[in-house]
Design a protein that fits this description.
The chain is of the alpha+beta class and 279 residues long. It is built from eleven helices and nine strands. Strands 1-8-3-6-9 form a five-stranded antiparallel β-sheet, with no helix packed on it. The chain has a four-stranded antiparallel β-sheet with strand order 2-7-4-5.
C-alpha cells in the first residue's frame, strides 16, 4: 500500500500460508514484524523483523510470508529509491567501497541508526501537513544510513554506468522493454560487451536466474495483469510473446499455482492479486 510519503509503502499480511508469485522492484524493504521467505531464481532468502532487503533491479520472485497471523501479522515498509537524489547524496559523501560482488540484491540486519532514521521518516504519517516540508531531508537521512549499512557498497552501483553489474542492469532494462519479443542471447550479450558464456554467468550471479527464465517470468506476470483486466487467456498469451497457448497454460500454472482461466476468475473477484511489487 502506498502512503502519503512519496515512494514509501507499508504492507500488512495476516495470512502467510499460501506461496505467492510476484516481483520486487529497485528499492529497499524493512521488516517490522513477522518474517518472510522469498525465492529469487535459485536462491532462497529468509529475513525477519529488523532485517532489510535491498535490490538494484526488478526481480521476479516466489515469496510467502510466515510467522504472521491475524493476531500478530507480518508488517513491512519499503522505499523506492530516487536515483537522482541518491546520486546527489553519494556525491556529497566520502568515497566508500563499491560492491566487488556481482549480486544485485542482498539482505542485512538493520543498524540502530538505520532503524531510527526509518522511524523518523515514517513518523511523518502522523503529521501529514509536515510531509511537503520535511520529507526530503528525512529521506536523505534514511538514504545516508543505507549508504553506511552493509547494503552501501552495492547501492553505490545505482549511479555507475561501467562495470559488469552496470552492464547487466542495462541488459535487464532492455529485456524488460522487449520481453514480448524473441530473446537472442547473442544480441543482448553483444550489447553488454560480453561473450555469451560471460554474459550468462554474470546475469545469473546478479539475478540468480538465467536471461531466458527472467524473460519468461516477466511474460507471465504481464499476462496475469492482462487476465485481471478481462483479457481472455489465449489473447493474453499471444500478446506477451507466447506462440503456444498450451505451453503458456502449463508455465502459468507452474508459477501461479492455478490455470490461467481459474486464476483470472479469482483475480476479477479480488480473491487473488495481480500486484507486481511485493513488500
Amino acid at each position: 500500500m502506498r502512503t502519503a510519503i512519496p515512494r514509501v509503502g507499508i504492507g500488512v499480511v495476516s495470512d502467510g500460508s499460501a506461496p505467492t508469485a510476484g516481483t520486487c522492484g529497485q528499492g529497499v524493504c524493512l521488516v517490522l514484524q513477522g518474517a518472510k521467505q522469498m525465492l529469487i531464481g535459485e536462491k532462497m532468502l529468509r529475513y525477519e523483523a529488523g532485517s532489510c532487503f535491498a535490490s538494484l533491479v526488478e526481480l521476479p520472485t516466489t515469496r510467502y510470508v510466515f510467522e504472521g497471523n491475524r493476531i500478530s501479522p507480518y508488517i513491512a515498509t519499503s522505499l523506492t529509491i530516487d536515483k537522482d537524489a541518491f546520486n546527489a547524496l553519494v556525491a556529497d559523501t566520502p568515497a566508500g567501497s563499491t560492491n566487488r560482488g556481482a549480486s544485485a540484491f542482498s539482505v542485512a540486519t538493520a543498524s540502530r541508526q538505520l532503524l531510527e532514521a526509518w522511524d523518523n521518516y515514517l513518523a511523518l504519517l502522523d503529521t501529514p501537513e509536515d510531509i511537503p516540508v520535511l520529507a526530503a531531508s528525512r529521506e536523505r537521512e534514511l538514504m545516508y544510513r543505507l549508504l553506511q549499512s552493509p547494503h552501501g557498497p552495492m547501492l553505490r552501483q545505482i549511479g555507475r554506468e561501467e562495470g559488469k553489474l552496470a552492464k547487466i542492469r542495462q541488459a535487464i532494462e532492455w529485456i524488460r522493454q522487449h520481453f514480448d519479443q524473441p530473446l537472442e542471447i547473442k544480441e543482448v550479450a553483444e550489447r553488454s560487451g560480453m561473450s555469451i558464456p560471460s554474459f550468462n554467468r554474470h546475469f545469473r550471479e546478479a539475478t540468480s536466474t538465467s536471461p531466458l527464465q527472467y524473460q519468461k517470468t516477466l511474460r507471465l506476470h504481464a499476462a496475469r495483469r492482462l487476465l485481471a483486466a478481462d483479457t481472455d487467456a489465449a489473447h493474453a498469451a499471444f500478446q506477451v510473446g507466447y506462440e503456444s497457448a498450451s505451453q503458456f497454460s502449463r508455465e502459468y500454472s507452474r508459477l501461479f499455482g492455478r490455470p490461467p482461466r481459474q486464476d483470472a476468475s479469482l483475480l476479477r473477484k479480488n480473491i487473488g492479486s495481480a500486484a507486481d511489487v511485493m513488500i
